[in-house]
Specification:
Pfam families: Aminotran_5
Largest sheet: 7 strands, mixed
Strand content: 5-15%
Distance between the termini: 33 Å
Oligomer: single chain
CATH topology of the largest domain: Aspartate Aminotransferase, domain 2
CATH architecture of the largest domain: 3-Layer(aba) Sandwich
InterPro entries: Aminotrans_V_dom, PyrdxlP-dep_Trfase, PyrdxlP-dep_Trfase_major, PyrdxlP-dep_Trfase_small
Number of strands: 13
Number of domains: 2
Strand order of the largest sheet: 2-8-7-6-5-3-4
Radius of gyration: 21 Å
Protein name: Aminotransferase class V-fold PLP-dependent enzyme
Keywords: Aminotransferase, Pyridoxal phosphate, Transferase
CATH class of the largest domain: Alpha Beta
CATH superfamily of the largest domain: Type I PLP-dependent aspartate aminotransferase-like (Major domain)
Shape: globular
Helix content: 25-40%
GO molecular function, one term: transaminase activity
Number of helices: 15
Order of helices and strands: HEHHEHEHEHEHEHEEHHHHEEHEEHEH
Amino acid sequence: MLDIDFVRAQFPAFSEPSLEGQAFFENAGGSYTCGAVIDRLTRFYTQRKVQPYAPYEASCLGGAEMDEARRRLAAVLGVDDDELSFGPSTTQNTYVLAQAFRQFLQAGEAIIVTNQDHEANTGPWRRLADEGIDVREWRIDPSTGHLDTDDLEALLDEKVRLVCFPHCSNVVGEINPVVEITALAHAAGAFVCVDGVSYAPHGLPDVGSLGADIYLFSSYKTYGPHQGIMTIRRPLAEVLPNQGHVFNAGSLYKRFTPAGPDHAQVAACAGMVDYIDALAAHHGTDSAGVHDLQRDHEVRILQPLLDAVKGRNAVRLLGPEDAAGRAPTVALALNRSGEEVAAELATLGIMAGGGDFYAGRALAGMGVKEETGVLRLSFVHYTSEQEVTKLIEALDRVL
């Protein structure tokens, strides 16, 4: 089992006096940062804050740290070093990719998007309709929020060039079968773009084994600095038009970053792997084993929360009732504003959120009123069993 005390000792937030007594349940909006990332960021800003890759020592060391972050993250994700790129955010990275596909696709060709997505992974793709691209919507089940692969197959034909979908939704929480969906898309001759923002905080996936052509996630939700991380597999990256400076066209990892990345934050991302390595060493496993430890812990402490809310009057749990099939991102549709309930929970030491969370299409698809939105309760592997108990007791008081 995951050593929760060791885990929490790696995060300065858990020893911060101003946060004492507060249970953090809005991790889907951004996680606490691990100490290894903070240490690397501090070191870069104090010792390496110069233009990298010049011949003098501070510059050489800065560039080496940036290269280290890319190399080590790529290894964890199961892709080549130059198949991983950094950008200011996943939203920005997706927008840049959509511009590349805008040039790549021909009028009359098609892409598939879902209404389960966060707006960042659907809005930029939908705008391709302005160029004559056929944008087809893979729709969720209105009662469950589930994406049925039979419905996807009905949308696929020889005109579809790209299928975009989330590894899991930031309000539905259900973990989608990426390998199966990718196989269906590839069999139809389409590329695949997976939004991993809501899944990656629960264990970085082996993108290589998933088969996705594009996989995107946010480092600020995976215990790191505010960056977007994207993997683009070589066969696709080499055929998409260059979106970077003309002199960077020959560099795979620079082709889709029009502006220079934040050097310090890129370098600090190596601290995310430092953290994974520390967990692996402490538990006697590897990075894949760390992923499984994180998920096992989350599933174990999530089920009591699901059981506590699924049968309540005037409370609708979005997504699966079984913790094994979902991420610990729990959205509740109530008969009043989710923001109001989140504010009440705050007085009881629970940090949660309310609103639509940029998933307005998914909520509308399930009949959730825009004016009330949802109450969202989200956690990750550093959340303790005691904090979940505290949350359930607080919900008993406010619902």
